[in-house]
Design brief:
single chain; alpha+beta; 2 domains; five-stranded antiparallel sheet; four-stranded mixed sheet; 10 helices; about 40% helix; binds zinc ion
Length: about 270
């Protein structure tokens, strides 16, 4: 069979393989765990340079995952960072690296070392290969048909709704939210805070196109004083409708928050009026 040449071609192929495989084994469709089939799949399709190891290593938080030659030059290994306790983050990282293996290993010629920031790059302007690996991972782990069905009533979702999706698909909470923001027509934004400041944010296209976003990479922006993210976990509230002037001067904003998915971090999901 002819091999796909694009990320979405590979994503459809692998997604179908995973679905049919589960059916044959009479297993529930989700979660799809990359570790269970990546080696066998690569051996079947590419006996000349298969993946022969999936393992963890201490990257000291510097990298989230890597695709590197394994011992012999004609074998590959997928490595993920030791420090993770979240199965969802590991599964998403493995899918990202599996994407690099299928789509990019022959284009690049170099090993791939992927940072946490690159796992968040779903914007092809920054780095096309990273964006493609993330799109591949999202498509395979959260197939569009099922994801649409699960989110069809999301007019004013909270992060609690996304925690349910995170568990269904075994992905990180951030990946589940970003996957929704990519396709929704709701005016919404994810804001990741660190130590009282906005670390980075992502707007849905309808919100972005109306000019609402934070350029937190260019300038330092503090979390708004009255935001739940700034008030911290001790205030005991996890979602709130804010009036104008808290997150945005012109618009009331509904915020839901999760504290410390990773140390010292906050996630705020903002739904704009
Ligand atoms: Zn990568």
């Amino acid at each position: 069979m002819k091999q796909p040449t694009t990320w979405d071609g590979w994503a459809s192929r692998v997604s179908l393989f995973a679905r049919e495989g589960k059916k044959l084994l009479d297993l529930p469709r989700f979660p799809i765990r990359i570790e269970e089939f990546a080696e066998g799949y690569s051996r079947q399709l590419f006996p000349g340079d298969p993946i022969t190891m999936i393992d963890s290593r201490d990257f000291g938080g510097k990298f989230e995952g890597a695709l590197v030659p394994n011992v012999a030059k004609d074998e590959w290994a997928i490595i993920y960072d030791h420090g993770h306790t979240s199965r969802g983050r590991i599964n998403f990282t493995l899918a990202h690296e599996f994407g690099h293996y299928l789509i990019h290993r022959r284009l690049s010629g170099d090993p791939f070392y992927c940072s946490r920031r690159q796992m968040m790059e779903w914007d092809s302007k920054y780095s096309q290969m990273e964006a493609e690996a993330n799109s591949f991972a999202a498509f395979v782990l959260m197939p569009p048909d099922d994801f649409r069905e699960q989110t069809k009533n999301f007019q004013k979702p909270t992060l609690r709704d996304f925690e349910i999706l995170r568990d269904r698909y075994e992905v990180s909470l951030t990946a589940a939210v970003l996957n929704w923001l990519k396709s929704t027509s709701v005016r919404a934004m994810l804001v990741v805070g660190r130590d009282g400041f906005i670390d980075w944010s992502w707007s849905s296209s309808t919100l972005y196109n109306s000019g609402v976003y934070f350029s937190a990479r260019k300038v330092t922006i503090a979390l708004p004083e009255q935001s739940l993210a700034a008030l911290g976990p001790t205030c005991g509230i996890t979602s709130q409708q804010h009036p104008k002037g808290v997150w945005n001067d012109d618009t009331a904003v509904f915020e839901s928050v999760v504290f410390a998915e990773h140390h010292g971090m906050t996630l705020s999901l903002l739904i704009y009026g």
